[in-house]
Design brief:
The strands form 3 sheets. Strands 1-4-7-10-13-16-19 form a 7-stranded parallel β-sheet, with no helix packed on it. It contains no helices and 19 strands. The chain starts with a strand and ends in a 6-residue tail after the last strand. The mean pLDDT is 81. The protein is globular, with a radius of gyration of 14 Å. By secondary structure, it is mainly beta.
Length: 156
């Protein structure tokens, strides 16, 4: 999917993406995942958009992102993955979040009890804000396993 002014992909139901590239989005989000069903992406390459790469804005479904690269999405509010929904179980495994305009992963809604965000074997480098920003209050369970955060220090 290339060069569009709205969503690259938007779904309110079950969705499975595999080996997909999304680039050149100037609308709202490259992938808007608003569902109560499962949505998954495997080997997804989302890059060079002027909006957030993936936004989970509503629903209580499962989002899994596996072996994917989310990079160079520019703009002051362009996160690699933005979770603004209070439900669901999210699994992020083997992904790279690089050079995004704000955070690699940003959680702004407190998850319901029993729901969690699991991040495993991921790399976060060069994002303007945080690698992982869990700014939400509530009962979000955050599980981090075998991940790497690369830091670049500039001395003036």
């Amino acid at each position: 999917l290339k060069n569009f002014s709205g969503y690259g992909i938007t779904s309110n139901g079950r969705l499975r993406l595999q080996d997909v590239e999304i680039t050149g989005c100037g609308g709202t989000a490259a992938w808007a995942a608003a569902a109560s069903d499962a949505q998954s992406g495997t080997r997804i390459y989302i890059h060079d958009n002027t909006v957030p790469a993936i936004v989970q804005s509503s629903g209580s479904g499962i989002i899994s992102l596996l072996d994917s690269v989310i990079e160079s999405n520019t703009g002051a509010s362009s996160d690699g993955l933005s979770i603004a929904s209070s439900g669901g179980y999210n699994l992020i495994f083997g992904c790279v979040f690089y050079n995004n305009g704000r955070d690699g992963i940003r959680v702004t809604a407190g998850q319901q009890i029993g729901n969690m965000l699991s991040i495993q074997n991921c790399i976060f480098e060069g994002n303007v804000g945080y690698g992982i920003n869990q700014s939400a209050s509530g009962s979000t369970s955050l599980i981090l396993l075998s991940f790497e955060i690369m830091l670049t220090i500039i001395i003036l």
